[in-house]
Fold each of these.
Amino acid sequence: MTEVMLDILVAIEWSALVYFFITNTFYAALLISAAIELRDYARRTRDESSWRMLGSKLAPQISVIAPAYNEETTLAESTRSLLGLHYPNLEVVVVNDGSVDDSLGVLRREFDLAQVHLVHPGYIDTHEIQGLYRSRSHPNLIVVDKENGGKADALNAGLNVATGELVCAIDADTLIEPDALLRMVRPFIESTDVIAAGGTVRVANASEVEDGLVKVARVPGKWLPGFQVVEYLRAFLFGRLGWNRLGGNILISGAFGLFRRSVVLDAEGYLEETVGEDLELVLRLRRHAYDTDTPHKVIFIPDPVAWTEVPETLRVLGRQRDRWHRGLTDVAIRHRKVFLNPKYGAMGMVVLPYYVIVELFAPIAEFIGLLVLAIGIPLGAINNSAAILFFLVAYGYGMLLSVFSLVLEEVGYHRYDTLKDRLKLTFFAVFENFGYRQLTVVWRLNGLWNFFRGSQDWGVMERKGLTAGDDDEASEKAERPKTTA
Amino acid sequence: MLTTPVLAWIFGIQVVVLAILLLWFWIHGIVSRRFEQRAARLVREVRAVFLDALVTGAELAPVVTLVRDMPRRVQIQLFTSLWPTLSGSQRGYLGELARQSKLVDHAITLCSHPRWWKRLSGSRLLTALGSDAPIMFRLISDAHPLVRAQAAEWAGDDPDGRAIPQLIDMLSDPIGVVRYTAQESLLRIGNESVEPLVEALESGRADPAAALPVAAGIASPGLLQATLVMARHERGEVRALAAQTLGAIGAEAGLEPLTDLLGDPEPETRAEAARALGLLGHWPVGKQVSEMLADPDYAVRREAALALKFMGPPGELLLRRIAEGGDERASAMAKHALDTPGSVAAGRAL
């Protein structure tokens, strides 16, 4: 019996090593690709001036779609900040997704809204739209009032009324850099093959925010948001940027993404039946393009274009990660035909396999690895020093990737300027591997479990609000039954 | 199976790489911070001295000395930040300062560099400095599209429009950013571009899909005849752009072709024609436009309804009739247009 168990443990150990080798090969490729991409991007954009673009008569129209649910306290300010974005041909579509507070009333008063007879092309089916408003004071503002149907449904309603050639999907509470659209539109102008573009989303907690803009970027002192600052830098600067050269991205953050409207309408918009609607949309757009032999370029630009408030409590963060993993699982299953299918080129042979093998299975592999160590060492199946070294190498590699992302941020952007911020970043990059990373494994495993139980819950995000770098602002809750935070 | 010594080696390498990365992160951070602080101080000081010299018309020599002492990157930062804020003779003054500070020479050297990003950097600098260095003409046909696009942007600032023929050729460039920049530059040059644009449209030298947006932006009567020909083009996209251009030109001779385009087989063209006639307030076609509210295409119905709204009282009267009529779809669109605030309509007109 013991011998069989030992054999199993050794076999698992071998599998763990093979898995370790595959994931690290992916990481190494992404790492090199990200560094080359950032260098190339810096060369292309150095000393570039965008002031001419601001006065352009030919800039394609962009419709920014902002779904909102119970945001009466911040909606006027966030809408004003959207209207103030630096772009010459802008339309803002705010979708009130069945708020039960006075969100619509705030908009009516602040922007002198006039209700217009409801008419829209109905390209995509959505929950009932109850009203359509135009602003007398801001001719480029449209407000859609609809029954609550969740973020995907709200975005689809926005897509129905938007008129821009390009649509920018955002979360209502995302803080957008004033020149974000000027940067994001470049790939669409450079190539008609580009169907979507994403940019870096960063953590805004503790940063100095004024009039809806991040004035000074700061690293939070609290552990949870601090770890997430490093996580976001790693995910965007190393993860997504690297894919530009390795088969293209399949994920554009729901917090900020720019799409060619006609392509999204052809694909019938966002899918409501998933909690990973952002990943699902991009994958479906690219899949459709491969099937129809049409352009499918999805570009990621490394510039920080949007800032978001991340969870500060274990409970909320756990639910968010649970949801993200459920979303990933759902999308991987829905699009299983793409997996290792040469018909879908690099997306089928490299990108999706990465998301499945490295992202989806990671918590399972890590959990099993830790379990085998815990069982194998007392049983003598695993050499103690080899086990400790393997543990150190595995987590050391994670640390290396995090610190590499810090270097990319520093060399490319240098947004965290103070000694204190750099100390915090170093601390969070090193210590996220001890405790925090294991917690994310538990949350993601929970997500897998909940997915197979059939949960479609979005959870509730507790927001503190983003003000002038104050960590101790009064807590503000915004509950959203189906819409993401 | 990986043996302990192999793992120990990997771990050792990781530690070394980690140490190097952390050192890089910290040293770069400290050096960048110091450099940025110094640069900000230098730019502030030189800006003040320069603006003072600009107002008083003082000698440039002391400013030149200050600029020459600055690191190259800070010089570039200074000039590129000042350029968009100045105009006319003030820009000339800044250009002279750049020339005397040898920054123009540096940019010209970069423009001949074998590496494309160096040439791009040089051409961006020459554009920002408003230099008329002849090397920029050569870069219009550079192998790298970003360099070509930058040279096109530079050419748009040339008041004599010496590069107009090349800019027109660039309208057929396979790379989007080159076409876009050439369009923008021709628009900035304005009336000087009209004749070559007409010639290019008539001879088929320029892609009409790229040339017509420029024509619509310039909206010169000189473009009317060429646009009228384009209104009969075989491509629907071109006919739609021609309708837009005819609307922008606003000549009486364009009204009849625009009216014909209301019955175009392509919905995009019908919509553009309705919109153009609406913007021109050409109410005699009101009846025809009102019938388009029953069009199967949503965009056509919307543009037709808003066109009637633009036509003023006669158009609004037609909209009211349709709103009370039996066609549910047309009625809804008419009500929508009637409800739409005037400020929204004005915004569209812009």
Amino acid sequence: MSFRQYEDLRRTHLPVVKSGGKVCGASIRRPLARLFILAITAIGLSKPATAQNGTFTVSAAPGGIALAAGGGGTLSGQFGTMNALGLGTPGAGVTVIPLTNGALYLTHYQINISGLPNPHLGAVTAFVNSNFTHPAALIMQSCPSSSTCNASGNFSAISLNAGAPTTVIPAPGISNQTVTVGLAIFVPDNNGAASFTGVDTARITLTATDTTNNKNFATAEIRLDTPVGETVQTAVRLTLATATGGLTITPGADFSMNFGNVNGLGFGPGAGLTTVAAAGGVVYSTPYVLQPSFSAFRSTTATIKTFVSTTFAHPTVLILRDAAASAGPYNNIGTTAGTATQITAAAADRSSITRFLGLFVSNTNGATAFRGSDSATLTFTMTVP
Amino acid sequence: MKKYFTIFALGMMALSTAAFAGTTATNSNTVSPTLQISATVQSAVQLTLSTGTAAVTHCAVTPTGGTPDYTMNFGTVDALGINAGNCNKFAPVTPGTTNAIYWSDYNLNPVFTSQTTTNNTITAQVTTDFAAPNNIFIVRDSANSATVPAAATDFTAVSTATPDTIVTNAASGSTQTRFIGVAVTPANGVGVTGAKSATVTFTLTVQ
């Protein structure tokens, strides 16, 4: 069936659609009914492209994004909301793979080649005929039928050049059958002047070639613009990690650290701890690592502050202190958001910042002395201006 | 309708801010993870010795880093007070009858933390005495004070049976000066000469 034949058949069958128990005429004016038709088209129909000797059909794959047959021989869909850190739940039919320099949002779709005379084979290529208007923020990628298309390494950028397209079904091609291929959008870390948040769209042209006679027999276009397109959001992440030679930081809600047994004389510091002399007691010190990540901001640096949001129950015996170096000086960390201690005003994206957390233990005796377990909470706040 | 839907969707995305955990957020410029810090405070006591500074001369208190913790050497001594020893001496009042005392000052440095009381004592006891025939024994200043002894009679033998209290209720972190020495008796007989050593155990108790 050629594309024109398919279009004729579709026009024949579409005019009468039963919806909600009512029969809608061919001249549908109700917007809801129009949407229903659009959905039916996306789910039930695939788009056969213009054919000379064979038929080339592009359709949504199970578990992939919805691709609706649109006007002018196209298929339309979208990846939805994305960010360079791969945070959150991706759009329906989209899988996100966080990478060290961005995030890859991938989906699958199907290509069916039929009607080729035996032993002819068909190959398919793709190029971006209308790229995103913010190419530093969104990069179209493709995975060929020869790969599983489940890992970032299976994908590569789609050519922007019609004369040198990207392989989708590699030569010598396939006989009449359906294959699943991958389509992805790489959202790189993108801060600074080229940063972008908002909606963008792109279009890809697929071309099927009969590799036996080397003739292109069909084309199709995927438009990533429906109903909205690709929405890039800002994303921020701040994690804490164990530093080499430091106390273990355990992920939880959100992180925890246990200094173990401490005393006012600094005897027997546990693994990962060192002691530093201090007036009125001793400071148990440990290095730890701050890992800031952020994307889609005009600024390329962030500010990180911390304050004691929950003080120890014995705040004169145990005091949290901060230092830039192991030997100090150790300064008390602020106990309110307004008096938060600034760790850095120049945190770079995906950097690792080693800092030193000190626990001052008083050597007080008598009525105000304390022995036993206690805990406090530090709140770290990263802000990207 | 499609136009309206598009506008609605854009509006919803512009207004939404998603935070997925304390460590991450989208459509936002700030994130605030927390770190819970735990510790168990224990009480602690420390008693160190160091070379004195009160007397005219001082026998060095030398930390060994092992066992015993410290050593002090009075040098060559005799019952007539002829040898100078390594620090100070009182010659016998009646040579051949009373003892010669070779002595030194030393410092005690008690430190204690997280104690519910500041009441404390430091005791001394000879836990390993000089070998027989015991013609030499450990003595301390009888006054248990920082006052420099003036005569041999200002010294008392350190008990080998029960601890002698030599400091009471010292402030944590303070330096307590005391005096220790060896008394050499005029005894004669087998084994009264040669190198000899004894061990004194100091105990700090806060209660």
